[in-house]
Amino acid sequence: MRGILTPGYPKTWQYKLYGKFVGINQEIPLGLARIQTYGN
Question: Alpha carbon of 6 to those of 9, 14, 16, 32, 34: distances in Å?
Answer without folding.
Answer: 5, 15, 21, 21, 15
